[in-house]
Amino acid sequence: MKKIMSLLVLSLLLFSACSNKEENSADSAKKKVYNFNYAIFFPASHLQAQTAEAWAKEVADRTDGQVQITLFPGGTLTKAPQTYEAVVSGVADIGMSVFAYTRGRFPLLEGLDLPVGYPDGVTATKAANDLVKKYEPAELSDVHVLYLHAHGPGILASRKEVSSPSDIASMKVRATGLSAKIVSALGGTPISMSQGDTYESLQKGVVDATFCPIETLKGWKQGEVIDYVVDTKAVGYTTTMFVVMNKDKWASLPEDLQNIMSEVSEEWIYKQGAAWDQADKEGEAYVKELGKSFVSLSDAHNQALVEAMKPVYAEYVKATTDKGLPGDAFLKDLQEMLK
Questions:
Q1: Residue 231: band (very low, low, confident or very high) from pLDDT cuts 50, 70, 90
Q2: Shortest CA distance to 149 belongs to which of 278, 336, 33, 24?
Q3: Whether 126 contacts 204, CB under 8 Å
Q4: How are the residues of the chain apportioned to helix, strand and coil, as percentages rounded to the nearest 5?
Q5: What is the dihedral of CA 175, 179, 182, 188, to 10 degrees?
Q6: Which of 1, 273, 319, 323 could form a disulfide with 122 if both were Cys (CB 3.0 to 4.6 A apart)?
Q7: Taking 90 as the threshold, does the pLDDT of residue 30 lie above it?
Q8: Does pTM top 0.85 for this prediction?
């Protein structure tokens, strides 16, 4: 009897050991960790980089540590203009940068940056994501789009007093990409330069003004070298940014982890837009503390601004139509959203 009992106990122990081994093996497979790098051109101290870091942490938390994302801010992994192609090639697993840094690469999406009168960053960010989901542009087909975000309306920060759009006609204005077309449409002279060069150029009078989101006046200290902040939100433009992932790296994830990353990214559409609006509030408060003047244009002058932008819209529609792209419908949808 004792011998039979001993055999039973031994059998149970062996069965338990095998079961535990199978369970541990299954747990090990289930808990595979995926490590990705993330190229960001913003410096680590910038609110947008911090918001991106919070996104990466949330992804790690919700995947129970299975997805680990290491940020490389400040262009340390890849410079801003090369970030998109770095994601396509796999140099960067995930990347955040600006569509406008590679002009002509995203012809349909250039419509997102048109001066259509964006009121704030949340609205601009939501519109960008909604339109990309609707149109699924082929120009993004070589990456997996996690989400987009866009800053609040560009305003005119000037050393000279501006009381009407006609005052801009005699001015040299720092403007890059699409904002340069705004200056030209108003009769001014656009001067292209990086944000890093703008402070000194304003200080020395190389340029009279700059088109920028108001957060820039604090973030780059440009509020120190201007005297007027002109509300040009009637034709408020934005600069749209992408957060995209290498397609092969995305495909390497099991479906449940893909779903979690998609859910977190959907939530971060609002958070990233709200971060832009928070930065704008801080920028406005900073300029007010410096005692600078804020200028509101009359209804008639705002309407004149809007009328002056019609050739800019027409140029975009023609350029996209010539490429067989639905730029006209894209622009109309965008304008309808803003109503």
A1: very high
A2: 278
A3: no
A4: 55, 15, 25
A5: 0
A6: 273
A7: no
A8: yes
